[in-house]
């Protein structure tokens, strides 16, 4: 398990090092949204600098009210006092892991949790830090982010029969790494199983507003069908590209258990991070209120992410990969025949073809299934100007820097089946490497 | 142990509730610096809003270099790569607790730690979350922040004889709650003991720049005498009143062990908080470079904290309390005769005299010793204008709102010895309560 703590870091550092030494690497390994901050948020941050008091651990009332409104507009009426803010939804997920099921006065037995396989790198790594053992359950074929409910049931019953305490199950809607959105039927069935087994559902919905086509792939939250046991986490790192600002929000169940969980979560939060940076909270309150300019920005971002993720999936498919069409966010999770493991595949893509991705093993996937996570959001450009052109243009794929990267990728993938270095790769030291 | 997780929160919420209901309470329970943000830092924050990438987990290079310069100017030459930044030094202390001594691949045995008794509320609470058992060792009489070195030695040898693993000892220089600075001899002796027992020293120096009179009370860091085993944590919450901005820094030992600790700390950080808010990091880099205007601001703050803390200590002394003169920060820790416990004392001060403080038990002190922590920094005023007047005035004690609070306190304390409600308190419902 130890390796998962820094697999992403190590991969990204490796890519950065190669680039510094002049090697050309197409960086498809990092889940950063790759877009500039909306000017209205810059203005709010600047105005709020004087907010320097420690403030409430749960977050500013204005932010909690705005986040409550955000969920209420999505048919989840929300009490602002059951919203807890943190410096990134990652911190909240960690705090929840400690707080869920911890008995009062005894923090060291949070109980084990069920994770989808594959799932985001940090869930299992966080679990390791606090001594929670993850139970990895595969997602249904063609889906992602929600562990197969019937397998959850048997895995939990089996673990409990062995004396283990299992308290929670995690879902990611839509999913990182697969880019897929679990079907409503799957979410409903998970809710039934969770209710039968008395599991808390942690629903990581940080990509919710980036579902590419909400008509074609309707979004159902576990909180819609099992509100009494679902905690939702979200944030602005993806929809508004504010990863570096560190802001996340959690919505707790509107039940006595939810209130008790709030108290434990606040106790943990107060001892680890206190609260998100106060000026950031003010700007986030503006964003969660969803004024028109912010809604438009997210609409534009969603279109761009969808267009580029699908174009990249298309390149992989044409090269012979098995890849489900991305349905949300900016990821795809292709499987490539002819490789023995995802590590070998990722290494080959990097060393011989100049394409940086993360192996499926980083997401807890079977080492022998040759799948990699491809993040497409760093293709929009190197500068704010390029990125804004991609965001606002009618045809981002025709922008020279985007088209050039896609061509480079296509050539790299062409070499994969022959296992020869691609032409782009062979020429990589002939001319000085461009900035990207 | 559970209660320590939220004693401060509960006390502060109780005070806020009483004030909302119209009760007058002099708020001396909260360790917030109570001063406005320096305009140069507001400008840096506003300029850095566009910094929205996730960035390095260790922190921006500019910030790490500035913090390295800060320590280098204090005769601790520092490699910027051995600086790790976090959202508040609290988060770094938590991360260190997990990372220190954790064997690679096994995070759940961080080993126990020695804490001074009394010490800041969060050390023991953090330890509880990760399953570290604190060993509380009293400070030498008249000192604070450093556990008595000879008692540390015997306590650690005793614990080890019982099979416990003890890996670290913590010091707070200068101290919260006592407001005292450990003497250089005590620090030297602690370093010797730590070396003999192979303990890491965590030196929390967040109040370092607020030592009231560095000539009279010279500052010695454990890192000056045991650099190979000392981790320093610091931040800008106290010296520059940036608590709500959440920024802290840690300096790791310049040894192979220090580099290994860095890797583990980064692994933990990357899974819990990622990095401090990027715009805040840019502003903090400016502050840690210590340009003249920032140095002057800290000088002014130090003078104000010293003046008011001593004036409050004087009021306690005149009322018959046993109180050591504060030497740093904005706290004092008086003992008042005639009470059976610190809880009873704090409750009486709040219920009968309208003065909110924290009982010594919140800091792990003996329940039967009737000591309370008094924080004096919320006396500077309610508005930015009042606080700036206190900061820049030649005689802050003569400002009407400061003088009035001190008079109120004096009257309240006068009633303590008679155990009668004070006159101020008896009249508290006769007129509408003022804002504070």
Question: How would you characterize this protein structure?
Answer:
Two copies of one chain form a homodimer. Chain A has helices at residues 7-20, 39-47, 61-72, 89-99, 121-130, 149-161, 184-197, 222-225, 256-272, 278-288, 292-318, 342-353, 384-392, 400-418, 423-426, and strands at 26-27, 83-86, 112-117, 134-138, 166-172, 200-204, 230-235, 248-251, 331-332, 355-356, 358-359, 372-375. Chain A is α/β, with parallel strands linked by helices and 436 residues long. Chain A folds into two domains: 2-30 and 293-426, Alpha-Beta Complex (Aspartate Aminotransferase, domain 1); 50-290, 3-Layer(aba) Sandwich (Aspartate Aminotransferase, domain 2), CATH 3.40.640. Chain A is globular, with a radius of gyration of 21 Å. Mean pLDDT of chain A is 92; it is low at 1-5 and 426-436. At the A-B interface, helix 2, helix 4, helix 5, helix 9 and helix 10 of A face helix 2, helix 4, helix 5, helix 9 and helix 10 of B.
Primary descriptors:
disordered N terminus, 11% strand, 7-stranded mixed β-sheet, 436 residues, disordered C terminus, 15 helices, 43% helix, homodimer, alpha/beta, Aspartate Aminotransferase, domain 2
